[in-house]
Write a structure and sequence with these properties.
The chain has 390 residues and is an alpha/beta fold. It folds into two domains: 229 residues, Spore Coat Polysaccharide Biosynthesis Protein SpsA, Chain A (Alpha-Beta Complex), CATH 3.90.550.10; 57 residues. The protein contains eleven helices and nine strands. Helix 3 links the parallel strand 2 and strand 3.
Length: 390
């Protein structure tokens, strides 16, 4: 058989077409995913969209049964911030309200694009709402306020701008000039006493210990969020946490209006918690200030009583004198052990940032309870590294 007969006939080759087109003998059709009248074009890859820049300020707004007036508060806050030129977000946290607060907030989301609504399945308290809201905030400056129309929230931009323009302050607190809460005749002396105790223990003047309107740097507050109690004393805690670690606070006088709706404050229970929280926070940061004074006073009383007993009854010490001296020694030993625990628990120091004119900006090393994500610098010129300072 001839060799030419054994070879198959050559297949005619189609002339090359333009790049990205189909060969001429293959008509486009449904099998190609295109209708017959549409010619396929060159393949394109969508360009990645740039991530939205985080806002400057995050307003954390706890809401519990505030449905009748929370919308008015949102309107007031957004009007003030929209006219300030600051970028912002509002985190409205519904603390398992039993009225229509959550529905009002959900309806408001379509009206206010900067609003984010977070709903709790069970009531956790204002401290829990503020702690979670601060953790979820994207802005470097976090603002705490209430939704009961008591605080002048139209002044929020003023608080934020103080932190933006003055890096020496880490928190700005709206110090109320009047008291308009319930049980006024009981609250005024109780607050004065608790405030004086806090001033004594922190060695700093505190015009308003538990104001609900305040702005602070989120990066500085993160190490202290785990210390926040679930109730009203969370504002006292964040104040004492900053003061006990040499984070400067500026107090701005503000007016204070009568609240809308029903107050959730219970005098006996919450006053007791305030006092307990003040002592707890000072014990956490500086236990010697709480334990050492009574130890020294007991020791002095025991020594004086021992001298008197020696004069009255030579070489005889009553059991009461021995117990007073032993109690003073036990308390002093507890104070020293507590101080040793505080100093050895691993809180980071930032003494090198105390020097004036320190160049550059610190970078946060991060951590589970640290001051932010790794490698994230703080605001321009900010002197703090976000951790507790001794």
């Amino acid at each position: 058989m001839d060799a030419s007969e054994a070879l198959p006939a050559p297949v005619p080759q189609a002339p090359p077409g333009p790049a990205g087109s189909l060969p001429p003998h293959v008509p486009p059709g449904p099998a190609d995913g295109l209708p017959p009248h549409v010619q396929p074009g060159p393949a394109t890859v969508a360009a990645p969209q740039p991530a939205a820049a985080p806002p400057i300020a995050s307003i954390v707004l706890p809401c519990y049964n505030e449905g009748a007036h929370v919308l008015a508060e949102l309107e007031r806050i957004t009007a003030a911030l929209a006219g300030s030129g600051l970028t912002y977000e509002i985190l409205a946290i519904d603390d398992a309200s039993t009225d229509d607060t959550l529905q009002v907030l959900r309806d408001a989301e379509a009206r206010f694009p900067q609003l984010r609504v977070i709903a709790f399945r069970r009531n956790g308290g204002s401290g829990t709402a503020r702690r979670i809201g601060t953790g979820l905030a994207r802005g470097e400056i976090v603002v705490w306020t209430d939704a009961d129309l008591t605080y002048p929230n139209e002044r929020i931009p003023e608080l934020v701008r103080i932190l933006l323009t003055d890096p020496s302050f880490d928190q700005v607190v709206g110090a109320r000039t009047t008291e308009e809460g319930t049980h006024k005749w009981l609250r005024v002396p109780a607050k004065w006493f608790i405030r004086k105790v806090a001033e004594r223990l922190t060695n700093q003047e505190i015009p308003d210990l538990n104001s609900g309107l305040r702005a602070f740097r989120r990066s500085v507050s993160l190490p202290y969020l785990r210390l926040l109690p679930p109730g009203f004393s969370c504002v006292t805690t964040i104040t004492l946490s900053f003061l006990s670690n040499q984070h400067d606070i500026r107090y701005l006088p503000i007016s204070y209006a009568k609240r809308a709706g029903t107050s959730k404050f219970h005098f006996l229970r919450d006053a007791y918690r305030y006092i307990l929280q003040v002592l707890r926070m000072v014990m956490y940061f500086d236990p010697l200030k709480v334990l050492m004074p009574p130890a020294l006073w007991l020791l002095l009383i025991g020594l004086v009583k021992g001298v008197v007993d020696m004069v009255r009854h030579p070489f005889y010490f009553p059991a009461s004198t021995v117990l007073i001296v032993l109690a003073s020694l036990i308390i002093a030993s507890m104070a020293l052990l507590a101080d040793l625990v505080v100093r050895s628990r691993g809180d980071r120091a930032a003494d090198h940032f105390w020097m004036a004119g320190e160049p550059g900006r610190p970078v946060d090393p991060g951590g589970a309870h640290g001051a932010g994500a790794p490698g994230v610098p703080y605001g321009p010129g900010h002197p703090s590294d976000g951790g507790p300072r001794r």
